[in-house]
Every structure is written in C-alpha cells, then in structure tokens.
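ok, trying the design again with the full structure, not the truncated one.
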C-alpha cells in the first residue's frame, strides 16, 4: 500500500479498534476481512452506512471474502461494501481494485433497509425501480486530486451529502410506514379472528422503522413532523403487546397518521435521478490515491 501512495496506514486485528477508527472518521479506505475476532465486520460497515457509527458513511470499503458461497456473499454485499475480493488475493490485484475505485465509484442506492453502493447488474438497472440514487463523495479520488493537504472541501462534501442521504432515508421510511400500515389494516378484518403470526412481522417492522426515523428526524428539516411518527410508534407498541385485540379507533388513527406522514415526507419521485455529490470534479482523471489518504487494513 505504501508503494501506491498511502502513508497513514492503520493495520489491526482488533474489532474494537476497527469500531473506534470508523467512529473517529479516521479512514478513507477500509480493507477488511468479513470476520474479526469472531465478530462480523459487516455489522460495523452497515452501522456506518446507516449513519449510526461515525459521521462519514462514505468510507470506501473493500471486503475480503473467505468463501464464494452465495448466502455468505449476499450478506457481505448487503452490509454496503464497495467491492468484494475473494482471498487469497495477489497484491497487484488489490492495487488494481483500489485504482479503479479511485477513478470511479458507484452511486448509492437508498431504500428503507439499505444504503450503499448500487450492486445491480446493468440489465437490472433498466428495470422499474423506485429506489433513489445518490452520487457520493469519493475520498480516494478527492485526495488524489487535492492540490493541498487541506481536507476542508472533502469534509464539507461529506457533511452535505450525509444530510442529503438522511433526508432521502426519511422519505423512504415515510413510504415504508404507509406500506406497513396498509398491510396491518388488511390483516385485521372486522369480526374476524386476528392471526398474530401474520400481524406481528408487520408491526415489528413498523416499530423498527418509526424508531430509526425519529432518530434521523431530530435536528433535521423534518423534525417538525416527529410528533405523528412518535404517535405511530406508540400505537405500534400497543399492537405489538396485544395483537389479538386491536381497537378499531387505534387502527383508524394509525392509518390517518401514516397517510399524513406519507404526504408530508414520502415525496421522492418513482424514477429519481442521481442526486449529485457536492464535489467539483477536475478535468484530470486520477489513477492512484495520494499520500494523504487514510487506510485501515483489518485482517
């Protein structure tokens, strides 16, 4: 890594150390094994992408795979890695991957349960798909193009794009709340026995989405709408504690609140174009990261 321009290199075999590096926003590129000290490193990557760990959800991540087993690979993909490399890997192969990521980075797909690089095939990219796309800062490219050691512009780009990511996530949550409430309403029939096994998954998902939506709304432009979401969460917990007996008034209130939230916040167009990252691209196309890039190697 030193030969291609990296100088600030953190190499660790500690899961706690990796957690702290992400939390302290101390890395631009993370090369990590999928498991460390018996812990899933994909969990930390997912927490970072979901803006629950650190303040930079856009660290470039290369995950090293120990197996090509489909379920295992899907789990790593779903954590939000930019690239996957099957081990053992030759240094030259890894360098080529880093150079490619420095030149170009896939936009992020933003849904209610995923926020990370678009890993769909080209064929699937043309299919009808409602998930918004977001161009995100590429710290490797930025460092390679920088004319000084000042990272202010990169920090500003990360902060501004993180706000955009948070806004889109809130919009996706508003749509998901309406969807879950619609299914809850359909599950509960007048004068019919309620099947808790059918109802509970929707209620549990509603609770999870509402809780994280409130976290994201605090301090954001949509904070004014946090009251209805809090009421939805209260009603969802009530349903969760007694799914066999749901008052009609609670069901109607839940439906009204979800529609209010959906109208106010769930406004992303069906075919949303890529939202641009606030980073100006110079004319020269970089090949390798600069000496100021910060790398963490976790094995």
């Amino acid at each position: 890594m030193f030969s291609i321009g990296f100088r600030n290199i953190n190499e660790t075999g500690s899961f706690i150390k990796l957690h702290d590096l992400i939390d302290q926003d101390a890395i631009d590129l993370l090369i990590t094994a999928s498991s460390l000290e018996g812990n899933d490193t994909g969990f930390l990557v997912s927490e970072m992408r979901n803006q629950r760990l650190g303040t930079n959800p856009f660290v470039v991540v290369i995950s090293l795979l120990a197996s090509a087993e489909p379920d295992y690979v899907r789990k790593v993909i779903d954590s939000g890695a930019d690239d996957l490399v099957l081990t053992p890997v030759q240094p030259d192969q890894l360098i080529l991957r880093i150079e490619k990521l420095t030149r170009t980075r896939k936009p992020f797909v933003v849904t209610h349960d995923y926020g990370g690089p678009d890993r769909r095939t080209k064929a699937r990219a043309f299919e009808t798909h409602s998930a918004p796309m977001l161009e995100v800062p590429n710290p490797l490219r930025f460092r390679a193009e920088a004319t000084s050691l000042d990272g202010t512009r990169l920090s500003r780009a990360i902060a501004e794009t993180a706000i955009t990511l948070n806004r889109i996530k809130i919009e996706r949550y508003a749509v998901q709340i309406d969807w879950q409430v619609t299914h809850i309403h359909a599950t509960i029939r007048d004068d019919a026995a309620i099947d808790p096994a059918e109802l509970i998954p929707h209620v549990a998902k509603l609770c999870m989405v509402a809780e994280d939506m409130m976290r994201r709304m605090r301090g954001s432009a949509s904070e004014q709408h946090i009251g209805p979401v809090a009421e939805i969460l209260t009603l969802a917990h009530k349903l969760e504690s007694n799914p066999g007996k749901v008052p009609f008034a609670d069901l109607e209130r839940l439906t009204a609140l979800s529609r209010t939230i959906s109208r106010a916040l769930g406004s992303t167009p069906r075919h949303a174009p890529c939202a641009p990252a606030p980073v100006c691209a110079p004319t020269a196309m970089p090949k390798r990261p600069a000496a100021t890039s910060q790398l963490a190697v976790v094995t």
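Keeping the full-length input from now on. The chain has a mean pLDDT of 84.
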